[in-house]
Each structure stands twice: as C-alpha cells, then as structure tokens.
Write a structure and sequence with these properties.
This protein has 1 helix and 20 strands. The protein is mostly beta strands. The strands form 3 sheets. Strands 1, 2, 3, 5, 6, 8, 10, 12, 14, 16, 18 and 20 form a 12-stranded parallel beta sheet that branches. It has a 6-stranded parallel beta sheet with strand order 9-11-13-15-17-19, with no helix packed on it. About 35% of the residues are buried.
Length: about 210
C-alpha cells in the first residue's frame, strides 16, 4: 500500500525571528528565513510555518503540523520524541538526524542528504523519501507505508524493526543488517539477487560454486 500524503498549502505568512523559537513556545503562521544561529525549539508547537535556510539543532518533543522546511542545515539534529504531521522537508542536509521515539505521519523528504537517520522506537507512517542520500538508516521502530524513490544508503539497519508496507525498490543499499526483520518490505528482483547469498547464509543454505 502506498503512503497516504495529504496535500496542503500554507497561507500568507508573517516574518518570524529567532526569538520566536524558544523552547515550549506556540508558534503559527510565521516564515523563518536565514537564521544561522543554531535554533533550539524543544517542546515547541509549530503550526503552518515555513523554515528556509535555518540552522535547526534541537526539536526534542516538539510538535510540527503542516510545516515546510527548506534548505535546512543541521550537522546534528536532535528531534527525539518529536511529532511531525504533514511536514515537507526539501533540499536539506542533516548530519545526524535523531528521531528516536518520535512520530512521523504524512512526511515527505525530498532532495535531502543525511548522515545517520535514527528511527529507533519511532512510529513512522505514510512517509516518502525522494532523491535522498544516507550513510545509514536505522529502522528500529514501527515503520508503516514508507516508500523510497531514487534514494541510496550505505547501510540499512532493520534490527528490531516492525515493518509493514515498506517499499524499498527505490532505495539502493550496500549493506543490510537485521535481514530477519525485513518481513513486510517490498524489494525488486535485482535487490533480491544482491541479497541472495546473504539470505541463503541466514537460512543455512549452501550455494554450490
């Protein structure tokens, strides 16, 4: 089943400033642009906002609803426990993206580059990755209706993951961990051939040469 992405259009927005983004703030209908100072927005509630060229650093337990994030620079983004609903992230570079224990629903990542994407203990539903690059994806949470298009990762870690309707056909991966947890995924025939030897070893099957 394909991810269900709900379209939305932001209304006219007012210019926002770094001081509006303190921890625990309720923020709506603002456009934050060109903020180079690392932003800490733990426990904030952000509704119908746009972020362009902002250095995000912490979003722990924050709530983002119908937000657009463009050209975000985050060498280390701590979004543990955050809630993202109907969020679009485009043309962004995130070194370490820690979404441990977070909830992502109706989120689109497009033209983004990640180092490590941590989804351990996260609840992820209806999420799309388009033209994204990763060094490692850690799928160690509840992952449902997720798809990849024109994306690639060096390592795909499925250890401890609960996967359902996860389409990996558009994700090139060099190494996979937790092969036994791949139940609930869809792969291409080419990916199957690349995994054949590892799958045979996992099942105790010897391949004659």
């Amino acid at each position: 089943m394909n991810p269900k992405i709900r379209p939305f259009t932001l209304p006219a927005l007012t210019a926002g400033f770094a001081g509006d983004l303190g921890g625990g703030e309720y923020v709506e209908l603002l456009h934050f642009e060109g903020i180079d100072t690392p932003v800490h927005a733990d426990d904030a509630r952000l509704e119908e906002c746009r972020f362009t060229g902002v250095a995000l650093e912490t979003l722990r337990n924050a709530r983002l609803l119908q937000c657009e994030l463009k050209q975000i620079g985050a060498p280390s983004l701590n979004a543990a426990g955050a809630f993202l609903n109907d969020v679009r992230v485009t043309h962004s570079r995130i070194g370490s993206g820690d979404f441990a224990g977070a909830e992502l629903d109706g989120v689109v990542f497009e033209n983004c580059k990640f180092g490590w994407l941590n989804l351990r203990r996260a609840k992820v539903r209806d999420v799309v990755f388009r033209n994204c690059q990763f060094e490692e994806i850690d799928f160690g949470g509840q992952i449902q209706r997720v798809s990849f298009t024109d994306s690639r990762t060096s390592v795909l870690n499925c250890v401890g993951a609960q996967l359902r309707d996860v389409d990996l056909q558009g994700l090139d991966f060099a190494q996979i961990e937790g092969l036994e947890a791949m139940r609930g995924t869809q792969i291409s025939t080419l990916q199957l051939s690349l995994l054949a030897e590892e799958m045979a070893g996992h099942l105790g099957i010897k391949i004659a040469t």
